[in-house]
Structures are given as structure tokens and as C-alpha cells.
Amino acid sequence: MPRGPRPDRATNLGAHRDTAMQLTLEPLAWLFTAGVLAHNLEEALYLPAWSRTAGRWHAPVGRREFAFAVTVLSGVLVVLATLAFSAEAKSLWAHLFTGYVFAMVVNVLVPHVAGTVALRRYLPGTATAVLFNLPLGGLFLHQALAQGFVDGSRLVWFAPATAVLLLASIPLLFALGRRLLRVST
Questions:
Q1: pTM for the structure as a whole
Q2: Best exposed site among 8, 25, 112, 181 by fewest CB in 10 Å?
Q3: What is the pLDDT of residues 60-117, one digit of tens each?
Q4: 17 assigned to some structural domain
Q5: For residue 6, what are the CA distances in angstroms to 13, 156, 179, 185?
Q6: DSSP SS3 for 89
Q7: Domain count, the chain
Q8: How far apart are CA 181 and CA 162, in angstroms?
């Protein structure tokens, strides 16, 4: 049987790795996103009432303004996930989405776990943060770096910058929500 040129085995393995990345990292990102949406729903349902008795841990926030803010932040996450997996690896969108993942992993520890421990009572969102955001987010961060989805040297500053931007947006979104919802009623 005549033999033709052998396909380059390294190229085939590289193509397999690219396919594996598409099959594993993207579904993991969407699982993480679904976990964050569940987390945001838990917070929207229970955190406004909790905030009225939280003392220094959280300023009181109304149900409608909180729902507005969490809806906007959830929408941003879905858009970033869509853009990150529509673009090339190591794109701006990949780094912004991964930075959002980092922010949500940090959010598990502060305020959720720290608040629950310090106050000795349940801080709404802790269960979904620990069950979904921490394991899925941690795994995504590890895989994103291992598979070259993001560049570690860029993520070192992208991740904290994204976290700070998200944190800074929360009071602004509360204020915008109060203003828009007051005008609409």
C-alpha cells in the first residue's frame, strides 16, 4: 500500500488541543455565568432586607435599586462571556471576562464568607457563591491561564482593575436605579 505524506502529528495534536479548549473552556465559562446568575438572583431576593440590619457591613439598599444594579451587572457578564468566546484568545474581551471571573471569586471571600463569619449569621449570596462561583470561577481561572485563553502578565493587572471597576460601579448603579425607578413610577 503506497504511503503518502504523513500529516504533521504536532499540528494534529495542536488542532486537538484547540478543539479541547473550545469544548471545555467555553462551557465552563457558561456554567460559571449560570452560577453567577443564580448568585445574583439569591442576592436580589434576600439581600435588600438583610441590608437593613447589616450595620457597617452593608448600607441599606432598596429591593428595586438592588435588582436594577444586579440586572445590569448580570447583563454585562453575559455580554462579556459572549464577546470573549466570539473573539480570539488573549483578546481584550477574554481578559475582561476573566477579570470579571476573578472579581466574583474574590467576592466569595469578601464580603460573603467574611461577612457570614464576622456577623455570625448568613449573608445572602454566600451559599451560591461557595457552591458555584468559587469552584467554577477558580477552575475557569486555572484553565484560562493553562490553555492560553489569557496572558498571565496582562491578567495580573486586568483582574484587579476589573474587580475595582465592578466594585466602583455598584453604588453608581444603585444611585442610577433609584433615579430611574423614581422617575418611572
A1: 0.86
A2: 8
A3: 999 999 999 999 999 999 999 999 999 999 999 999 999 999 999 999 999 999 999 9
A4: no
A5: 14, 42, 67, 71
A6: coil
A7: 1
A8: 27
